[in-house]
Each structure stands twice: as structure tokens, then as C-alpha cells.
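Risk mitigation, structural track. In case the binding assays with nickel (II) ion fail to produce interpretable data, a predicted complex structure has been prepared as a fallback.
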Amino acid sequence: MALLNILHFPDPRLRTVAKAVTEFDEELRQFVSDMFETMYEAPGIGLAATQVDRHIRLLVMDVSEARNQPRCLINPEILEADGEEEMDEGCLSVPGFYEKVRRAEHIRVRAHDENGTLNEFEAEGIEAVCIQHEMDHLEGKLFVDYLSNLKRNRIRSKLVKTLKQQAS
Ligand code: NI
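Fallback model:
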């Protein structure tokens, strides 16, 4: 087990488009277990591989109150999306900022798990929001991209400033 380092906006590596996973082997399962450890430790409700600088289509999540429903989605696809909802979102790569983002309220998803089994399921509410947020990461997209330029630039300068303070 190992904690992975989480990249912070505006790190350009967060803009990488992830590639499909083709091998479901022991190395992948080890990575998934490190991803869960990193997400729970942070703590966060979701983490995409992109955020730890590994550019494969994989995300982990747990939106349960008790933190006992880990779910790993590999090569996820949204088959259907409908409705609209707006929720406050945050991101482990944009620490300390929460903003409203509009997403589909209900989605139908197909994804492999860490053993390579293909599952299809429906999600709504915070689970649907989390999946859409994490899938954006795999496209190199962040929730701040949905905000106005003014808001995004303000967040960027604050995070850059924090980074400089940590470095000095
Ligand atoms: Ni995020």
C-alpha cells in the first residue's frame, strides 16, 4: 500500500487525456488499492487516475456516509443521461474551493471493475455527480472549467500563491 501524490490545479498534467485500460492484472489491482487508500486518506469521495499522474481511464469512489462502499470504474462510459441538477462541487486537485456545477441528474453507466468484469448500472444524485466529475478528469477537464473566467482565474492565483508559500 502506498499513498499517491495528488496533482493540484493549474498543473498542466491534469489536462492529459487518459488512455483505455487493456490489462486487468495484479499491477492494476495494486494501483486500485493505492488509489482507494489515497482517496480515503485525503479524504475525498472520488479520485481519478489523472489526478495522481497516471493517465489511464480509471477512477475510484465512495459516496457513502459510512465510507464502506468502495467502487472502482475502469473504462467508464455514460450510456444515457437525463435531468439536470446543480450541486456544490469540490476536488482534491482544487483544495479549499467549492462551487456550483450543473450536471445530469440521472445517468446509466457501463464500466469494468478491477477484475475486468463489465457492469451496467444507474446512478443519481451525488453518485451521478461524482461519476461525471471524475470522468471529466479522464478527459483532462476540471470542475473549474465550468466557472466564469473571473472565478477560475481567482482560484488559480490563490492556489499558485499557496504553492509558492509552501515551496519557500
Ligand atoms: Ni476532482
